[in-house]
Amino acid sequence: MSDLDDFKATYFDECSELLLELEEQFAAIQAGDRSPDRLNAVFRAIHSIKGGGGAFGFTELVAFAHAYETLLDHVRDGRLQLTPSVTTLCIRANDIVADFVSAAKAGKSLGGNYGGVERAQFDALTTGHAAETAGAAADESLEDFDIDFTPVAVNLDTAPAADVAGEDSFAQPPLAAERGHWEIHFTPHSELYARANDPLLLLRELASLGELNVVAKLKEIPPLADFEPFGVYCSWELTLVSPTATAETIGEVFEFVEGNCDLTIMPLAPRGAKPAEANSLAELAAMVTPKADPDDAMPGFEALANELKQETVKRAPAAPPPVPKLLAGLAPVPAAAPPAEDADDRRAGPEDRRGAGIQSIRVDLDKVDRVVNMVGELVITQSMLTQQMDDMLKARYQELVRGLEVLAQTTRGLQDAVMAIRAQPVKSVFSRMPRLVRELAQKTGKQIRLETIGEATEIDKTVIEQLSDPLTHMIRNSADHGIETPEKRKAAGKPEIGTIRLSAEQAGGNILIMVEDDGAGINRERVLEVARQRMVIGPDQQLTEEQIDNLIFAPGFSTASEVSDISGRGVGMDVVLSNIKKIGGSVNVRSRTGQGTRMTLRLPLTLAVLDVMLVKVGPAPYVVPLSSIVETIQCARADFGRTPSGGKVLRVRGEYVQVVDLSERFEMSAREMANRFVVLCEAEGGNKVALVVDDIIGQQQVVIKSLEENFEHVDGIAGGTILGDGNVALIVDVQGLKSHEFHRNAA
Amino acid sequence: MRVLTVDDSRTILAMLHHTLSNAGFEVLQAEDGQKGLDVLSHENVDVVITDINMPVMDGIEFIKQVRASGAHNSLPILILTTETSQDKRDQGRAAGGTGWIVKPFDPEKLISVIHRVVH
Fold it and tell me: Distance (Å, rounded) from C-alpha A707 to C-alpha A720?
């Protein structure tokens, strides 16, 4: 990756953070917080997006951001009131900025007129005139922009610094002009020194333009007794002979001191350069030095007296060396030479800096993943070692056993610590939702408020990345099917503004993410009707209310095109389920007619390592995720039964649970039933399933390996893992088995 | 030569760091004026490059405080800003800024401006 790509990546990262910040600030502003800090933060965010964008030549983005910034500037200094309509415009503008950023990231153009309507509104608001037409106003502001702020794309492939910093860097000034002779009178004021400008440097720069003769005017210097260390006594008369210098290039040298000095720049009739007065440069250096560092004024004063007595340096009239070299010849110059204590400080520098407390570092995700993988392997090795210890060895090498126990603990700690590195707050996903809700509200003509809770909840980065699509679907579903129109809500005695609440919390080893709405609830009759129509369930199958609600996630069930007012989506909630399953999570929905719907995502804290129960089916080891196991029962004590349709069920505490015999399912030879075990698992939506296995071996941690990546998808298997003894065990997909059996029974 | 760069934008800090370290400067960084003051309180630097718009303490206040401390009267401070408007620049100068660099900066120009204000 080139440096420029690196910077772009940093820039886009930063933009996401800034856009997030904008959402937050406007949420507070809308909630009535009008403190100037809010507006300043908004202004800074847009300013930074614009600034970085300019560096990469994202002209469309910069142009819009610039217009928006102008509006914000008006609001900030009170020229414009932050009325609700201005706030709405700003929020819309944030969305447009976000679009421009995305487009820039994708290397696409949105066209110069994108956001033109808003730009016209900015213009109308900031100039106080109503915009005649949106397009014309946008063009106008673009012109303004061109004059006011011209982005310069950065070329990072510049020559190495030596070329730039060296004396030759000014050998060819950019503007060519006629060979000319210039006379310059320069009298600094005290403010010039107060701002750390240094006449020496100005002269050095002038000398780089051509042949420079310097005459220091010393008339004003008072007798030593009256000499004020901070007084300004010196002025200069300069002659510059340069083939290229113009009044502009010379003026540019004095750009930073404009207003802090008397300056005249006059062209002279061409004639031979006046020879310098023999001692002028020495005096110049001497005069400037005490000014250069007023702190050193007292010691410098002594040096000044010495300097004045010193031998002066003769200039060669034919080929004058550049001024910096002459100055170097004048050493020691007190201010230029770093004092010894200074050097000591520098040596102490790096440690001090570390002490100064850098709170965080940025690390490439690949590096973290490598550590995660290695820790995973370490977990396996550790469990392998533990397994290798038979009773005889344990008795003989007690120290080793103790050591292994410590190793197990440390490994566990290391694993938790590594996982914590990958954890990120869900805020990064939640922050994309306010815009979605705004757009949905606009499209559906409903009034919807979004509440977010628990944004700081942390979850594995991979999970976060996979979360955006499912959440988008769920919120769409709530806005589309859940929340009613204002009229209907009013008629039902509810507030006209509907609420969607997005929340996250940690519950044990899981993260729960909930999307709740206070809408009409799921229309169960309609869902049943559609499910029967589409053969998702059998015609006579009886389902509980909860089972009906969860049908919306069933594959092949999509009411989207039927019920939706928002056309063109074409995907149903089954996508949510499959996405969530991919990251080892589950989803459940509960609904109350007339009161609302709550969809709950249950996600694992981490993806890479799983606590499992190791079981045997036929000769092969299988693992069942511990998080889904409710209890285990010996088959001899289990109460099996049959449904009228012939399906096998288990009766547990008055509840009938579907039985899946893994030996049958995976076509393995089974032991005698009485010696086998039932592993009672809870699948999504609280549905239970009883897995019958041949033996229970124990509990351990495993590192999940994808079956799809290494082989292909197998029904009923969620993945594979390598056990401590090097054998491969397959991970049982509890939910997959459950729904498979469910559909087989239903058909 | 050591440069302290003060900017709330990571992008700008990164680009400054790249340009300056390629040019042989040692680069120190701070994310706002307050942090800039903290760095100056225990580090020696030869030149400061600071943004204007920053949270906590903006560039103008930062420059004022640096000059008011009396310890850095001869420290050149360059104002780095996209504000091309005269009033921001004047405010920066009035506060004690030595010169300015307009963002987005051209690396060559940046280095040459630094050499205009530093020995």
Answer: 6
Inter-chain contact B18–A54, Cβ cutoff 8 Å? no
Sheet of B47-51, strand order: B26-30, B2-6, B47-51, B77-81, B99-102
Structure-token pair, residue A234: 């010196």
* Distance between CA atoms of residues A664 and A403, nearest Å: 43
Q: Is A539 exposed, middle or buried (0-12, 13-18, 19+ CB in 10 A)?
A: exposed
- Window 250-289 of A: residues touching B by CB (8 A cutoff) are 253, 255-256, 259
Give residue-wise pLDDT tens across range A676-692.
Answer: 898 988 866 567 889 99
Before A322, cis peptide (omega within 30)? no
Q: Which residues pair with A613 in a beta bridge?
A: A624, A699
Give the phi and the psi of residue A152 in degrees, each rounded to 5: -120, 120
Rounded to whole angstroms, the Cα distance separating B39 from A211 reads 41
Token code pair at residue A420: 């914590």
Which residue is it, tokens 């940025």?
Answer: A362
Q: Check if the beta carbon of residue B71 is closer than 8 Å to that of residue B91.
A: no
What is the residue-wise DSSP string for A458-493? EEEHHHHHHHHHHHHHHHHHIIIIISPPHHHHHHTT
Which of A190-194, A288-292, A443-447, A527-531 bottoms out in mean pLDDT, i.e. has the lowest? A288-292
CB A622 within 8 A of CB A616: yes
Cα distance between residue A456 and residue A462, in whole Å: 17
- The crossing angle, in degrees rounded to 10, of helices B33-42 and B59-68 is 30
Measured CA to CA, the distance from residue A284 to residue A217 in angstroms comes to 9
A623 phi/psi in degrees, rounded to 5: -125, 145
pTM strictly above 0.80 = no
Question: Average pLDDT in the A725-747 region?
Answer: 69
**Above 50 in pLDDT, residue A67?**
yes
Q: Does A2 touch chain B (CB under 8 A)?
A: no
Answer for the pair A198, A292: CB distance below 8 angstroms, yes or no.
Answer: yes
Q: Which residues have C-beta within 8 Å of that of residue B35, sequence separation ≥ 6?
A: B6, B56
Is the preceding peptide bond at A243 cis, omega within 30 degrees of 0? no
Question: Do A180 and A273 touch, CB atoms closer than 8 A?
Answer: no
Those residues with Cβ within 8 angstroms of residue B19's Cβ, 6 or more apart along the chain or in another chain: A156, A158, B105, B107, B110, B111
What CA–CA distance (Å, rounded) separates B76 from B50? 11
B/e letters for B101-113, b = 16+ CB within 10 Å, e = fewer, are bbbbbbbbebbbb
Residue among A88, A114, A89, A84 at smallest CA distance from A101: A114
Q: Quick check: B9 and A198 CB within 8 A?
A: no
pLDDT in tens, A124-161: 888 865 444 444 444 444 333 333 334 444 454 444 44
* CB atoms A156 and B107 under 8 Å: yes
Distances (CA, A) of A539 to A533, A534, A645, A746, B60: 9, 10, 14, 9, 75
* Cβ neighbours, 10 Å, residue A37: 11
CA–CA separation, A569 vs A561, rounded Å? 8
Pair B117, B78: CB distance under 8 Å: yes
Nearest-angstrom CA–CA distance, A290 and A274: 28
Contact B11 A160 (CB under 8 A): no
Structure tokens at A371: 């550590």
Q: Which residues in chain A are contacts of B117 at CB distance < 8 A?
A: 196-198, 201, 256
Residues ≥6 apart with Cβ < 8 Å to A369? none
The residue type found at A546 is E
Cross-chain residue pair A165–B23, CB shorter than 8 Å: yes
A233 SS3 class:
coil
* B17: closest chain A residue by CA: A7
Mean pLDDT computed over A638-642: 86
